[in-house]
């Protein structure tokens, strides 16, 4: 792999063949749920039970899915690549970790964690959350929420991500539709830094014209083919 510093961005498409729903495909999450109700702080304030049901369901599903060849190919690339490497995922599932990825940031949070909206305490979360749950630090009930970034909220690890984008000479975007910012703007930031940009996706994304190269097909085929 002719590169000295790589940034990889992944979206729901990389987990689709593992059986994790995407957002915008026909049977995607946004086809059966309103973003305003389940993925905004306002929605959580209005009807926290509805939000807990949405994320509890997605957390339970993780027990029935496993990393696929695309997740495994990225973990192998990370291990073998001698240069700087950062995997930035928009996904809140834990399939990258289970595939062995370590140089990984979840810019939109993780289902495997809960956050107290009152005191900011973070805890590991492997079971359902409810409004009866009490924070072990501030001992107040009803403030524990999924540790995910909702619309209108600031994504996580943005400084680390932007530093890596400024340094990278290869930017690879996998399984994302390029609809949601700031992630959808990373390709421009990488190009501005002089990086070669590559899209690996089932179909052309919203931002396909920003990429130097694009290879379209199922992630389990195009990702191993590109990184090996
Ligand atoms: C709708 C959109 C227009 N709105 C936004 O972008 C908003 C507002 C906004 C900010 N800046 C803007 C600029 C212009 C316009 C709007 C904005 N952004 C925000 O609110 C963000 C916070 C957004 C985070 C929201 N939370 C998510 N997820 C966590 C929760 C949860 O998971 O429930 S977003 C969620 O949807 C996003 C899109 O999903 P994708 O992963 O791309 O999935 P999708 O289904 O859309 O596409 C799947 C793709 O895979 C492909 N595919 C399918 N199967 C396969 C397959 N088998 N193989 C390969 N590919 C496949 C398909 O072809 C498709 O292309 C992901 O980010 C995902 O995490 N916060 C913020 O901006 O803070 C301030 C700021 C500004 C600048 C700099 C710093 C801070």
UniProtKB/TrEMBL annotation:
<feature type="binding site">
    <location>
        <position position="55"/>
    </location>
    <ligand>
        <name>substrate</name>
    </ligand>
</feature>
<feature type="binding site">
    <location>
        <position position="116"/>
    </location>
    <ligand>
        <name>Zn(2+)</name>
    </ligand>
</feature>
<feature type="binding site">
    <location>
        <begin position="11"/>
        <end position="30"/>
    </location>
    <ligand>
        <name>NAD(+)</name>
    </ligand>
</feature>
<feature type="binding site">
    <location>
        <position position="138"/>
    </location>
    <ligand>
        <name>Zn(2+)</name>
    </ligand>
</feature>
<dbReference type="Pfam" id="PF02146">
    <property type="entry name" value="SIR2"/>
</dbReference>
<feature type="binding site">
    <location>
        <begin position="201"/>
        <end position="203"/>
    </location>
    <ligand>
        <name>NAD(+)</name>
    </ligand>
</feature>
<keyword id="KW-0808">Transferase</keyword>
<dbReference type="GO" id="GO:0008270">
    <property type="term" value="F:zinc ion binding"/>
</dbReference>
<feature type="domain" description="Deacetylase sirtuin-type">
    <location>
        <begin position="1"/>
        <end position="228"/>
    </location>
</feature>
<comment type="function">
    <text>NAD-dependent lysine deacetylase and desuccinylase that specifically removes acetyl and succinyl groups on target proteins. Modulates the activities of several proteins which are inactive in their acylated form.</text>
</comment>
<dbReference type="InterPro" id="IPR026591">
    <property type="entry name" value="Sirtuin_cat_small_dom_sf"/>
</dbReference>
<dbReference type="GO" id="GO:0036054">
    <property type="term" value="F:protein-malonyllysine demalonylase activity"/>
</dbReference>
<keyword id="KW-0520">NAD</keyword>
<keyword id="KW-0862">Zinc</keyword>
<feature type="binding site">
    <location>
        <position position="58"/>
    </location>
    <ligand>
        <name>substrate</name>
    </ligand>
</feature>
<feature type="active site" description="Proton acceptor">
    <location>
        <position position="108"/>
    </location>
</feature>
<keyword id="KW-0479">Metal-binding</keyword>
<feature type="binding site">
    <location>
        <position position="135"/>
    </location>
    <ligand>
        <name>Zn(2+)</name>
    </ligand>
</feature>
<dbReference type="InterPro" id="IPR026590">
    <property type="entry name" value="Ssirtuin_cat_dom"/>
</dbReference>
<dbReference type="InterPro" id="IPR050134">
    <property type="entry name" value="NAD-dep_sirtuin_deacylases"/>
</dbReference>
<dbReference type="InterPro" id="IPR029035">
    <property type="entry name" value="DHS-like_NAD/FAD-binding_dom"/>
</dbReference>
<dbReference type="InterPro" id="IPR027546">
    <property type="entry name" value="Sirtuin_class_III"/>
</dbReference>
<feature type="binding site">
    <location>
        <position position="119"/>
    </location>
    <ligand>
        <name>Zn(2+)</name>
    </ligand>
</feature>
<dbReference type="GO" id="GO:0070403">
    <property type="term" value="F:NAD+ binding"/>
</dbReference>
<comment type="similarity">
    <text>Belongs to the sirtuin family. Class III subfamily.</text>
</comment>
<dbReference type="GO" id="GO:0005737">
    <property type="term" value="C:cytoplasm"/>
</dbReference>
<feature type="binding site">
    <location>
        <begin position="90"/>
        <end position="93"/>
    </location>
    <ligand>
        <name>NAD(+)</name>
    </ligand>
</feature>
<dbReference type="GO" id="GO:0036055">
    <property type="term" value="F:protein-succinyllysine desuccinylase activity"/>
</dbReference>
<feature type="binding site">
    <location>
        <position position="219"/>
    </location>
    <ligand>
        <name>NAD(+)</name>
    </ligand>
</feature>
<feature type="binding site">
    <location>
        <begin position="175"/>
        <end position="177"/>
    </location>
    <ligand>
        <name>NAD(+)</name>
    </ligand>
</feature>
<keyword id="KW-0963">Cytoplasm</keyword>
<dbReference type="InterPro" id="IPR003000">
    <property type="entry name" value="Sirtuin"/>
</dbReference>
<protein>
    <recommendedName>
        <fullName>NAD-dependent protein deacylase</fullName>
        <ecNumber>2.3.1.286</ecNumber>
    </recommendedName>
</protein>
<dbReference type="GO" id="GO:0017136">
    <property type="term" value="F:histone deacetylase activity, NAD-dependent"/>
</dbReference>
């Amino acid at each position: 792999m002719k590169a000295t510093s790589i940034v990889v961005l992944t979206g729901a498409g990389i987990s689709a063949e593992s059986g994790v729903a995407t957002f915008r495909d026909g049977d995607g999450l946004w086809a059966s749920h309103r973003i305003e109700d389940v993925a905004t702080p306002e929605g959580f304030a209005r009807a926290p039970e509805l939000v807990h049901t949405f994320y509890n369901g997605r957390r339970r599903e993780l027990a029935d899915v496993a990393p696929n060849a695309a997740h495994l190919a990225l973990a192998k690339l990370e291990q073998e690549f001698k240069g700087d490497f950062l995997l930035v995922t928009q996904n809140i599932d834990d399939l990258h970790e289970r595939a062995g990825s370590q140089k990984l940031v979840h810019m939109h949070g993780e289902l495997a964690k809960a956050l107290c909206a009152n005191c900011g305490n973070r805890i590991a979360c492997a079971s359902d959350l409810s409004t009866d749950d009490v924070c072990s630090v501030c001992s107040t009930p009803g403030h524990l929420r999924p540790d995910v970034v909702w619309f209108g909220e600031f994504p996580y690890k943005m400084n680390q991500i932007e530093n890596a984008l400024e340094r990278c000479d290869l930017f690879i975007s996998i399984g994302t539709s390029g609809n949601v910012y700031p992630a959808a703007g990373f390709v421009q930031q990488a190009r501005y830094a002089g990086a070669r940009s590559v899209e690996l996706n089932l179909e052309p994304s919203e931002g396909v014209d920003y990429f130097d190269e694009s290879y379209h097909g199922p992630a389990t085929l195009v990702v191993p083919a590109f990184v090996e």
